[in-house]
Design brief:
The complex is a heterodimer of chains A (112) and B (113). Chain A contains no helices and 11 strands. By secondary structure, chain A is mainly beta. Chain B is mainly beta. Chain B is 0% helix and 56% strand. In chain B, a hairpin with a 5-residue loop joins β5 and β6. The model of chain B has no long low-confidence stretch (mean pLDDT 92). The chains are: A mainly beta (112), B mainly beta (113). Chains A and B meet through β4, β5 and β10 of A and β6 and β11 of B.
Chain lengths: 112, 113
């Protein structure tokens, strides 16, 4: 078990560009979560999957954000037409049913 | 809406001293409670959790926390701090029926030699 992995670890993009992040959860975990963390703050929930079904989305998840988990394994988070306010650390976590969530190292996005 | 408060933004302790980090939550139902630690450039590592049962829970790295329902608190403690404990600590709350965690804003711990 190598834990939750995220790629890329860092992404710098220009305002208006699209970006996509990938998360690979712990292999037997059926639940996958995305959070966003800005400097000096705790993580804030974005969305949650159980297997391939997206079951909850935060109001933070504007229509420029879309997440998928097509086969119930890895997940992608896409941000379209990035804005400077999207600059943050994007964290992925996974869990087995309702147990504790294990976090990946995050993807740091900088929008210039 | 549920919320988590970590009133101390920054704490400095001497190595070998005891530590207590405060966490208060607001919600009517019995919460699930967690403490995570985050080192610079790293993801969040789970220190300990409370789901039910004994209100004093033991975690990794010598940490413990106590759930006090009457005070809506879940404070983290360690009897003797090591320099490697310097990091940011987050308290988080979850509830039955809601899968997302609500995090506090964190407490940054500095350890003086």
């Amino acid at each position: 078990d190598t834990g939750v992995s995220q790629n890329p670890r860092h992404k710098i993009t220009k305002r208006g560009q699209n970006v996509t992040f990938r998360c690979d959860p712990i292999s037997e975990h059926n639940r996958l979560y995305w959070y966003r963390q800005t400097l000096g703050q705790g993580p804030e929930f974005l969305t949650y999957f159980q297997n391939e079904a997206q079951l909850e989305k935060s109001r933070l998840l504007s229509d420029r954000f879309s997440a998928e988990r097509p086969k119930g394994s890895f997940s992608t988070l896409e941000i379209q037409r990035t804005e400077q306010g999207d600059s943050a650390m994007y964290l992925c976590a996974s869990s087995l049913n309702g147990d504790e969530q294990y976090f990946g190292p995050g993807t740091r996005l900088t929008v210039t | 809406a549920q919320s988590v408060t970590q009133p101390d933004i920054h704490i400095t302790v001497s190595e070998g001293a005891s530590l207590e980090l405060r966490c208060n939550y607001s919600y009517g139902a019995t919460p699930y409670l967690f403490w995570y630690v985050q080192s610079p450039g790293q993801g969040l590592q789970l220190l300990l959790k409370y789901f039910s049962g004994d209100t004093l829970v033991q975690g990794i790295k010598g940490f413990e926390a106590e759930f006090k329902r009457s005070q809506s608190s879940f404070n983290l403690r360690k009897p003797s701090v090591h320099w490697s404990d310097a990091a940011e600590y987050f308290c988080a709350v979850g509830y039955t029926g809601r899968r997302a965690l609500t995090f506090g804003s964190g407490t940054r711990l500095q350890v003086q030699p």
